Amino acid sequence: MLVLQVLFLIQINKMKRILFVAFVFASQMVLAQANIEPHLKNIQQLTYGGDNAEAYFSFDGKNLSFQSNNANWGVKCDQIFNMKIKLAAKDTSYLPAMVSTGNGRTTCSFFMPNNKEILYASTHLAGAECPAPPAPRADRKYLWQVSPSYDIFVANLKGTITKQLTNSRLRCRSHRISNWR
User: Fold this and answer.
1) Nearest-5° angle of CA 80, CA 106, CA 82?
2) Which of 65, 77, 107, 171 has the most beta carbons within 10 angstroms of its beta carbon?
3) 52-131+139-173, what's its fold?
4) Rounded to two decimals, what is the model's pTM?
5) Domain limits of the chain?
6) pLDDT digits (tens, 9 = 90+) for 70-97
């Protein structure tokens, strides 16, 4: 019995040492990150409300392109916006300019190198309504909706489409896409 008690105390002491070492290590890592990480020293919130995603800087660093479904901006389905960072940083009620058409669903916006145009994908040619979301996965993991009606567009910062780079209707008619869900 005495041997079991001694072994038990030894195990407890080992666990205490392991926990202490783990705590010290974790503390040092947090402090090291705070001193080393230069990119997280000036964090500022720029949007308020809605689901805002996929934000990308313009090449000159003055603007962000991103998608949002912010109901306060009159949006029901993901649309592409152009945010002037300096203005948004000063004003919590700032309303960025919508670059997409306001119809269908959009995704994956990115500034063109000239900083005057944004490339994005949209389903607006297939209809004004927001496409129905896919059924949730059984494992509850995130599921990114990829619709066969997405086309890729380039628009200027005022929202005028300057180029259509793909044509999903031709793809669907030629049966290159079949039973795509």
Assistant:
1) 10
2) 65
3) Neuraminidase (2.120.10)
4) 0.71
5) 52-131+139-173
6) 999 999 899 999 999 999 999 999 999 9
